[in-house]
Design brief:
The chain is mostly beta strands. Helix content is 12%, strand content 36%. This is Spaetzle domain-containing protein.
Length: 200
């Protein structure tokens, strides 16, 4: 089966070393109308007062049934290679115009590594929009057992070309799978340490 993926021109994806494709012609109503890399996210990373949050919700809810705290961008990629579960670079199979495609969900460039939207004032600075990843099947060049212990249930088959025989196999590669809001608890300083610092 040929899979299909997504890309962001603004952020280099170090897990997929690739030439990015044009945006997919498919429409994804839940994301495409607003969360596009070409449309800026207003006030990204800035704490908004309740009235400002309500205004933002009314503006964005026109295009969807829900609003993301960390907006994602859905795009398609045509990787030349990627990282497997052993963090090894693997070359993906391609033959002329026959290329493997994958969908990726990337953090919008305006919110990546910034505080999440719609957060309580006490938690705002402790929150962050981070890129999430998952693994998907891909047809890759067999690196050989010296470098990668391929599971027995992954088949391997040869192909012939100008440079001789090449073996290909199934493997997992790392892809972007969404943008998540993570809250990190603030570290409380112990009272005796604080008193010690005041005395000195």
């Amino acid at each position: 089966a040929v899979l299909t993926s997504v890309s962001s021109q603004e952020h280099l994806n170090t897990t997929l070393l690739l030439s990015r494709s044009e945006r997919s012609a498919f429409k994804f109503d839940e994301y495409e109308p607003y969360y596009s890399k070409d449309i800026r996210i207003k006030n990204a990373g800035r704490f908004l007062k309740p009235r400002e949050n309500q205004s933002l919700l009314r503006q964005e809810i026109k295009n969807r049934t829900g609003v993301d705290c960390c907006p994602s961008v859905l795009e398609m990629v045509e990787p030349e290679g990627g990282k497997n579960q052993d963090d090894q670079y693997v070359e993906l199979y391609r033959d002329g115009d026959n290329k493997q495609r994958f969908y990726e969900m990337s953090c919008h460039q305006d919110v990546l590594n910034k505080p999440c939207r719609f957060m309580d004032k006490k938690l705002h600075n402790s929150s962050k929009c981070i890129q999430k990843y998952s693994y998907t099947y891909a047809l890759v060049k067999d690196p050989g057992r010296r470098h990668h212990q391929r599971p027995k249930y992954f088949p391997s088959f040869p192909t012939s070309g100008p440079s001789g025989e090449t073996r290909w196999t199934l493997d997992y590669i790392k892809v972007r799978s969404g943008c998540s809001c993570v809250v990190t608890p603030l570290q409380k300083r112990k009272k005796h340490k604080l008193r010690h610092e005041v005395e000195h």
